[in-house]
Predict the structure.
Amino acid sequence: MAETDAGQKARQARRERIRRIKLLIFIVPLFSITILLGLCIFLGIRLHMVKKELSDMRAAMEAATVMNQTDLPEDTNDAKTQEALYTVSKVEEFTQTEIEDEPLTEEDTDVRKVYLTFDDGPSGNTNRILDILADYDVKATFFVVGKEEEEYQALYNRIVEEGHTLAMHSYSHKYGEIYQSVDSFSADLSKLQEFLYETTGVWCRYCRFPGGSSNTVSRVDMHELIDYLDEQDMSYFDWNISSGDAASSYIGPSDIIRNCTAKLQDYDEAIILMHDASDKNSTVEALPGLIETIQAMDDTKILPITDDTERIHHISNE
Ligand SMILES: [Zn+2]
């Protein structure tokens, strides 16, 4: 009897082991397959997202190149790295807000207003630009950076003395620093505002964000920086026409003139983006032809930015 019991128990135990093994044989592959399937789905989704991001970036880059909406940093130590990072510039519908303090006269409203604006100066080319503007008796706007060296002091003053609008771009023009926080942005801008006041006696109130208000580089929401400018009673100006002179590859004077004038007829007020930098000789070479082309257009005036200028904004808080 005892032996039979023992035999039965052994058989039962064996059956139990076989049952467990069968279960394992079934569960382990099922479990593995489920995990692999999950992993495949996850990777598939990631791949799809990456592909989409890549195509969005490519589209943005193409749009930026075509429309020449880039404002690349110049004259900074790490300009090359920044150039690579900031070529992708978000191209948005422009929102244009008009200021209401002084109503335009009938005569003014019939005239197309063109504003030549130069970013990133002063530079080794500032005097050449100023000479040409003087030759044609044309006033422009300079969105300058902070350069303390002696050789630049006279240039800031010449801009002011010859009746051009002195405006602020950034003291350091280092995207990585100024776009860290509202505090770092305001510290940079205040430094420039005070420096320009000490140098020229002009308390500047007009700004242009490096990369424009639609830049995709800032770690701070640009609307916060726009609010900051509002609080400080400062205005910012983007552009609706780009000369394309910030392109990384060479662009000749005739292409610059074409970029600046091709769509000029579409606007009642056009703010043209150009650069005042020592390596941008074609901008200087394009300037006489550009001014002559604009002056030859009917009812068109070249003016410096003032309170009457339409605020051309890529993004705004309104
Ligand atoms: Zn710039």
Summary: Residues 62-102 have pLDDT under 50 and may be disordered. The first strand starts at residue 95 and ends at 97. Strands lie at 95-97, 112-119, 141-145, 165-170, 206-207, 235-236, 241-242, 269-275, 300-302, 311-313.
